[in-house]
Task: inverse folding
């Protein structure tokens, strides 16, 4: 009984448009645990947050000094394709 009461209380805070948006914006997956009533609004809020997250992630990737994985971040030294340092 107490478990179900706690679950219902948790769903009240989880199943809000603000939380759905925040989950999407932070890159988290949406868990299908909310009641079907009003689910469209929650899914729309999540989709908007997810769209922002993906755009920001892609922009950060393109702004990276080594967008294709070369450089100090990946191997600890600059990329030298044949080991000659050029």
Result:
């Amino acid at each position: 009984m107490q478990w179900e009461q706690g679950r219902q209380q948790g769903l009240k805070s989880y199943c809000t448009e603000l939380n759905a948006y925040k989950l999407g914006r932070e890159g988290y997956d949406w868990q299908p645990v909310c009641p079907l009533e009003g689910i469209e609004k929650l899914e729309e809020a999540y989709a908007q947050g997810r769209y922002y997250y993906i755009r920001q992630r892609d922009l950060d990737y393109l702004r990276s000094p080594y967008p294709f994985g070369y450089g100090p971040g990946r191997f600890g030294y600059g990329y030298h394709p044949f080991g000659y340092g050029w």
